[in-house]
């Protein structure tokens, strides 16, 4: 039996913000796939919940007038990988979405919940880091935009105020136009397992050289990370085996994985190098530079 003291179900975002402002002890819940597990393990006593599941205004995936892609916080992972907007413009996020759990979980779990849970293994995080996603956070009397790369504050910790709700994930056109990418999740099992390592690469090639390269990792540090040294090294350089190997080595140096029962530090470092080289060799040399 879940230890739930109270659950409030507002009918609108404005109502939700008012309720939250009056009681900042409320724990926000949408799909509930993370919160219910914590309740099951007794991590919350007398839980007070604010369900935003029925706020349809947070369920849209749309392209704004300036071609920014807007993804509502209540959008599920099934919504993402079925979306034409996502698949036509940022398929790297669709790859991340379909790798998350099984069909039942994907039908319930929301991208907003996946981000705000702060888990280093969140499947959406590496793809969103590579896309330079921005987060719109609203409170009763304020609204602010935060870069996702500045949102994580440690394992399971994010920089959201107690009276704020994440409403939208925003991806500007400059961060997806003319870019290709790929996300690989490595886990001990092929299905229904938490990521041992997540690798997201987004790149743009011009004249057989890297015009842009973004490498993001999950479960390679206390929070998801961008491999800045590896990225900066590649810009302007030709897409060659020598450059790719150096990029992979620099990415290992940018990371700081830990030992855990899912995999050792050394094995994760090996995976970082191997998966980066696999993506760049398979997806670039074979399809772009031939």
TrEMBL record:
SMART domains reported for this sequence: CO_deh_flav_C
Pfam families: CO_deh_flav_C, FAD_binding_5
Tagged with keyword Oxidoreductase: yes
Gene3D superfamilies (UniProt xref): 3.30.465.10, CO dehydrogenase flavoprotein, C-terminal domain, Uridine Diphospho-n-acetylenolpyruvylglucosamine Reductase, domain 2
Annotated keywords: Flavoprotein, Oxidoreductase
Domain of life: Bacteria
Domain FAD-binding PCMH-type: 1-176
InterPro entries: CO_DH_flav_C, CO_DH_flav_C_dom_sf, Diverse_Substr_Oxidored, FAD-bd_PCMH, FAD-bd_PCMH-like_sf, FAD-bd_PCMH_sub1, FAD-bd_PCMH_sub2, Mopterin_DH_FAD-bd
Keyword Flavoprotein: yes
PANTHER family: XANTHINE DEHYDROGENASE FAD-BINDING SUBUNIT XDHB-RELATED, XANTHINE DEHYDROGENASE SUBUNIT C-RELATED
Protein name: Xanthine dehydrogenase FAD-binding subunit XdhB
Organism of provenance: Clostridium saudiense
């Amino acid at each position: 039996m879940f230890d739930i003291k109270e659950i409030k179900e507002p009918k609108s975002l404005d109502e939700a913000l008012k309720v939250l402002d009056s009681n900042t002890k409320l724990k926000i819940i949408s799909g509930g796939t993370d919160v219910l597990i914590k309740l099951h393990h007794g991590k919350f006593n007398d839980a007070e919940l604010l369900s935003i599941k029925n706020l349809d205004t947070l369920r849209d995936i749309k392209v704004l007038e300036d071609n920014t892609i807007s993804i509502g916080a209540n959008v599920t992972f099934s919504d993402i990988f079925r979306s034409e907007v996502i698949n036509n413009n940022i398929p790297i996020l669709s790859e991340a979405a379909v790798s998350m759990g099984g069909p039942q979980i994907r039908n319930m779990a929301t991208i907003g919940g996946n981000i705000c849970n702060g888990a280093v293994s969140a499947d959406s995080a590496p793809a969103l880091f590579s896309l330079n996603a921005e987060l719109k956070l609203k409170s009763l009397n304020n609204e602010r935009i935060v870069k996702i790369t500045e949102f994580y504050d440690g394992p399971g910790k994010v920089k959201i105020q107690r009276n704020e709700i994440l409403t939208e994930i925003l991806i500007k056109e400059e961060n997806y136009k003319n870019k290709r990418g790929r996300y690989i999740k490595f886990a001990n099992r092929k299905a229904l397992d938490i990521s041992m390592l997540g690798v997201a690469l987004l790149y743009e090639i011009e004249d057989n050289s890297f015009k842009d390269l973004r490498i993001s990792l999950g479960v390679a540090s206390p929070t998801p990370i961008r491999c800045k040294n590896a990225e900066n090294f590649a810009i302007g350089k030709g897409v060659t085996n020598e450059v790719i190997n150096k990029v992979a080595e620099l990415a290992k140096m940018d990371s700081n994985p830990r030992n855990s029962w899912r995999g050792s530090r050394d094995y994760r470092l090996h995976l970082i190098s191997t998966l980066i080289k696999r993506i760049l060799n398979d997806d670039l040399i074979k399809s772009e530079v031939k």
